[in-house]
From TrEMBL, chains A, B, C, D:
Keywords: Aminotransferase, Pyridoxal phosphate, Transferase. This is alanine--glyoxylate transaminase. It is an enzyme of class 2 (transferase). It comes from Olea europaea subsp. europaea. Transmembrane segments: none annotated. Its EC number is 2.6.1.44. The keyword Transmembrane helix does not apply. Belongs to the class-V pyridoxal-phosphate-dependent aminotransferase family. InterPro entries: Aminotrans_V_dom, Aminotrans_V_PyrdxlP_BS, PyrdxlP-dep_Trfase, PyrdxlP-dep_Trfase_major, PyrdxlP-dep_Trfase_small, SP_NH2Trfase/AEP_transaminase.
Length: 366, 366, 366, 366
């Protein structure tokens, strides 16, 4: 039933889902278990405690929801906000666009701050908006830490500085899908209220778990948030946390054991070493792109992403043809250009459990 | 990191998540893949086609959402109904209770028809309500085909007959979580508008995929349904179906290959043989319970469930102690009694890829 | 490609190869590795140290040869003896017969001491032979600790006592294939010179590793043993042990990691607890056989085996039909009767990583 | 228990054991089975038939012995020859040296024909010896098709021509360990009498199965061959082949299913395409070595090996340091120089289920 790839293993360099370490594949190679037995809550407890470390939070409350990044977004918004709430959101690429689309469909009142694709969030506009908003009509700032479509990393510390400068109480909601566990991310230090990621990104698991951390302020906000939610309702989780059984509905046993193995690998290497490694491999990628004589889609060094590099191809080439040929002839998977940059860029994902030599695999592109 | 069980394999007889066949475990033992490559849509296409067969529908449209049964419920309701819509729902056990709770929190106007736990849905009340509802204020009938908490199977054919008799246009929404692929289930013949199940039940996969089938009438209803939905929105799926890329967001690669293997096993045995086997093993279970001198929680034979048997323990015994001891001393997992029947019943799940001998594993209870 | 068994898992109750614990299957789920890297010798070192514990030896030297029990036999004989050497060997069932056949084909001069199948080794004959052998023409005693064909366990302590009583220097070579790790086995205390087992027996691994322990006296004997040997030559191993690279030729990487996991499980439970558990499950099996009204092939309680029970069927039944039907109808694998007891007995293997409930699986035979 | 490698997967480029395809790892991810059930013989039958195809023989008889290449050598020699028999054997590197050592220890009378390491077998000497041997005292020619230590491929067709030219009846025994399934190999066409390989080489399985094919003439020779053999005796296999149960002792169930998957992959790609791919990747490797300014250990193009390249390092560098650093810093496994070329060469294995991109992994060496 396997689709035919030709000989050898697939070389996976899309920015997600990423390569799964052998240790994690092994940990997930198992039968189901009763999630109401004493074993699963005991395991869950260690995971909830340890997952906070990759968010660099001690005060946050984590939720591991059987969903994807899209569902994690929805959970972040509906648990903390009410229909009609004004939010500021930054449009800088396909994934921020999709989140904004979700925000609008959930009936929030979204101030969209747009940048050219390849640029970071325009935080000057944010500063003006916050400065002007004496009456605190802005309820939340929604920002994608790392825009996977263009390889742009936004500066979250500056967002926090702006809010603090004006003593603005807006919630600070962050999509960390392609950043957490790979880029420098500091939930507590940067005063982030909701941060989220997906299992298939830097954690290097299969898809299927949206991991969210909520600050005490975010939890407080749930009490007044009127957005309709059931599956994504954090309160159902909190109720089961109190009972010590942890799960309002059935989790994936395999993902729990996989997450345990993934966290163990990260802690063994050291989270800061993991982040430094991403920096090192990303730099090597950018140097390679430069050596090929191609341009990085990201327009300024301050926005360079250490998890994904979007490479601009010459105008007479269709980037999707490169991706197609890489897959068909070399069993090499690269990311397509999306929406505005379709045909113009291809993307190299360099996140997750990679090493120097593995990265060489896409070098044939030269 | 494995929690210690003692020697030997765990004997899993909860009504979900159920035992995964070795063939399915093998199929899922793999790295991630790019879901935008040509391979994943090609695989998805076969799955969408074949999954309809286990619902016994040719006209339905399937959705395989990265979620659980709870999420599948939410998807069924929010895609077809608007807040304030009147629905009739049957409360006969913990899972129907949870679905009703969801219906209420999603702001539907729910006529709850309650039965004693151990009895089936009161379809006489349904008939009266339908007969009276000349103006068609009832927009949907929501019913759990098989109540997992009490081992009660409702008669779906009768529901259809009632609706047809009164030519009532209410949508017919069915939770088939612990029935589809195990009990006789005929989506098209019974005129079901939305049917749903979860991957970790009779399909014998890990948790993480909610599978829903929508009739043409249900799809039509999405056009006017005003419930807020994004992650669960079928329209996003339909858009990607048209493009042939199938996925609005990242699916679990492992579950896709696992589902392929699971369906292959079912078709190899023959779906009707699978259903007959469930009948045979369920009957053996009920005979064993009788031989032990214990009572079935299900009050009448017409409601006997072929996927789960809830066993009533004598009043001087706490059923949760039996479950605890079975797990601790015999590495045998049984289902707890839930809510109203907590402490009073324990549950034997006999669904999924089981055989006669495997079933003997719980016989020690004698 | 999987041969069709019907639904559910296979119930494996042959006396080998036995069920592999999930933890061991997981540990073996891996790519190959360079066995000349620093990692493999480091792992090997821990295995050589720990494997001695299951033989209960501190002075023995272990060899883990990529072969089966038959190869381990050959290694035991050819490393310690010369063609023409006189040995005493006990014929009590098919496996002792096969070993004797090997001894004869390797040109040893074998005194075969035969018992009825179902009886243990006739140690009175041994005592006479040893008593008479003042000139020490007997170079070795070869005995199968547990005859897998008839479920008979020989008394090794008595063999040692006889040799000690007459101060006879014969080597004491023991086939522990279906005993080590399951029955009470004390290499050092009983003065065993060569003991051996296979990975697929009580260690609960796949087939492919013959594990042998040699006493200092056995190692001394290699210096004068003139039997031709290359692949099975312990000296090649000893040479590589000294260099710290351990392997004269390529080992199975997967079996090394599997053995690590298997030993970890045994030590976690405690070797003596493992042995006690085998005793308990064996007793339950014998009681069941009795309850069925059938006879144990083993003729006296002193020889009852705690790893395999051979069950005598009534004369009007062909036991191979029972085995065939069990497999075909119930996906249950039992051992056939072999050679002299073909058609007359079937065998239940109850060794390895089993528990009480698992054992119930063959109870349907009633 | 996993030895720590650092992040990312190991890059395995030793000439064996080689990378295992995911499909094969999956196929082997299973519990044991009763090898006396109907399923295992049915599987074995297909394997015996299909394995002949990779030897390009229709008249040969295959044996799949639970052993390594070293054991397969022993099986080839002891089944066809008697102690004292004169054989001609070519010493051109470490593996031919080891085979010759075995031949001598098995008491054959070996004419060793030595070449410089880096050169092929001196077939002129063979021609003289054969020409002179009017009385047919030479019973066998033993030759390693591909010497893994130096990356030298011998010309087997020429050996056959020499024998035919002089109508010499010597048996033609070939070690195809690092050639069969990767290099052009034609058992029948070249009149090879015994050919052998190991599972962990081009078949891309774990270690543990020695696969041997014997010509009708070789089978005839077993009748007079007086070498002592039991474990390796083909006659035991032939006896069980006739009974249709195939196995004189327990095989590895996992390797059988793995071999099935490995053969399926080879046939899907096409054996000749597999061989052509090895040629292509080998050429790329040699060009890379040239581009690095380094020398191939193989002294003439006619001997270039398409499965392994031994690279000569400058005299002021210790090649084992390169191998050590590659492993430690880059998680890249290369082959050491052995014996005479220790410290002077390192080896790149490019055999098995590889593709172009994977091969790039060692390019960092530049």
């Amino acid at each position: 039933m396997d689709y035919f790839y030709g000989p050898g293993r697939n070389h996976l360099f899309v920015p997600g889902p990423v390569n799964i370490p052998e240790q994690v594949i092994r940990a997930m190679n198992r039968n189901n278990e009763d999630y109401r037995s004493p074993a699963v809550p005991a395991l869950t407890k260690t995971l909830l405690e340890d997952v906070k470390k990759v968010f660099k939070t001690t005060s946050g409350t984590p939720f591991m929801i059987p969903t994807t990044g899209t569902g994690a977004w929805e959970s972040a918004l509906t648990n903390t906000l009410s229909p009609g709430d004004r939010i500021v959101s930054f449009l800088i690429g396909q994934f921020s666009l999709l989140w904004i689309d979700q925000q609008q469909r959930l009936n929030f009142n979204v101030d969209v701050v747009e940048s050219d694709w390849g640029q970071g969030a325009n935080l000057d506009v944010l500063a003006s908006k916050i400065a002007e908003d004496k009456e605190h009509t802005i309820k939340a700032i929604c920002i994608v830490h790392n825009e996977t479509a263009t390889g742009v990393t936004n500066n979250l510390a500056t967002v926090r500085k702006i809010l603090d400068h004006y003593q603005h109480p807006a919630l600070f909601l962050v999509d960390g899908v392609s950043s957490i566990c790979a880029l420098d991310f500091r939930m507590d230090e940067w005063g982030i209220d909701v941060a989220l990621t997906g299992s298939q990104k830097a954690l290097s698991l299969p898809t299927g778990m949206g991991i969210i951390c909520a600050s005490p302020k975010a939890l407080e906000a749930t009490k007044t948030a009127k957005s309709v939610r059931v599956f994504f309702d954090w309160n159902d989780y909190l109720k089961f946390y109190k009972m010590g059984t942890y799960w309002p509905y059935t989790p994936s046993i395999q993902l729990l054991y996989g997450l345990r193995a993934a966290l163990d690998l990260i802690f063994e290497e050291g989270l800061d070493n993991v982040i430094a490694r991403h920096g090192r491999l990303a730099k090597a990628t950018r140097l390679a792109v430069e050596a090929w004589g191609l341009k990085n889609c990201t327009q300024k060094e301050e926005w360079f992403s250490d998890t994904v590099t979007a490479v601009v191809v010459p105008p007479y080439i269709d980037s999707s043809e490169i991706v197609k040929r890489a897959w068909k002839r070399y069993n090499l998977s690269l990311g397509l250009g999306l929406n505005k940059v379709a045909g113009k860029v291809f993307r190299i994902g360099h996140l997750g459990n990679l090493n120097e030599v593995r990265l060489l695999c896409y070098m044939f592109l030269h």
